[in-house]
Amino acid sequence: MKTSSFRIIPLSTEIADAARRVVNASSADHALITVDSPGSSPCRHCLRWAQPGERVILFPYAAIPSGHPYSETGPIFVHANECQRYSATNEYPADFRNGRAFRAYDSKYNIIDAQVLNGSEPEVVIENLFQNPDTAFVDARSVTHGCFTFRVLRVGHASGPPRQARTLALL
Ligand SMILES: [Zn+2]
To answer: Relative to the CA of 42, which of 5, 12, 16, 101 has its CA 20 to 30 Å away?
Structure first.
């Protein structure tokens, strides 16, 4: 399904490449793993499940940067070999239509809402979270493991219409 009101933001190629360099230097917090079961290791760069036999790097990533009450660093995977960054950014990634939780953050990185799919299509849940003009972005995470999967940005307004204009519209 095409989406028009939000954009999928995969992990940057710079961060994926940095992890590939660091793991080759045998850093203690970067682990090189050979995937043994399908659906176990989502690559945050190409936004696909790594296939059995493929190698991935497991390393900590600060999805919410330090210096905020909701700061959070957690483990993510990227393919150990070069992969193509997810480019269909106006389409919800097909591999992650299930098993995701969605957290809405405001522009100061505070969590202001959170939803699981509960039978809904992910596009519907994301649109719903963006109905709140204070939602600056939505993070998709594993519903079971809690790990960050990808970010979703609103297209157009960075954080919705200005509050004053919204208030005036209600008068
Ligand atoms: Zn990948």
So the answer is: 5
Does 97 fall in a domain?
yes
User: What secondary structure does DSSP assign to 41-103, as a single string?
Assistant: -EETTTTEEPPTT-EEEEEEEEEE-SSSTT-EEEEEEEESS--PPP--TTB--GGGSSSEEEE
The model's pLDDT over 102-132, given as tens digits with 9 standing for 90+, comes to 999 999 999 999 999 989 999 999 999 999 9
**Structural domain harbouring 61:** 6-170
CB atoms under 10 Å from CB of 32, counted, come to: 14
Which residues are placed with Cβ below 5 angstroms of ligand 1, an ion? 43, 45-46, 79, 83
Note the pLDDT tens digit of each residue in 48-68: 999 999 999 999 999 999 999
Task: Please tell me the pTM assigned to this model.
Answer: 0.87
Distance 82 CA to ligand 1 centre (A): 7
State the total domains in the chain.
1
Cα-to-centroid distance, 1 and ligand 1 (Å): 22
| Per-residue pLDDT band at 164 (split at 50, 70, 90) | very low
How much distance in Å is there from the Cα of 134 to the middle of ligand 1?
32
Q: Is 127 contained in some domain?
A: yes
In a domain, 1, yes or no: no
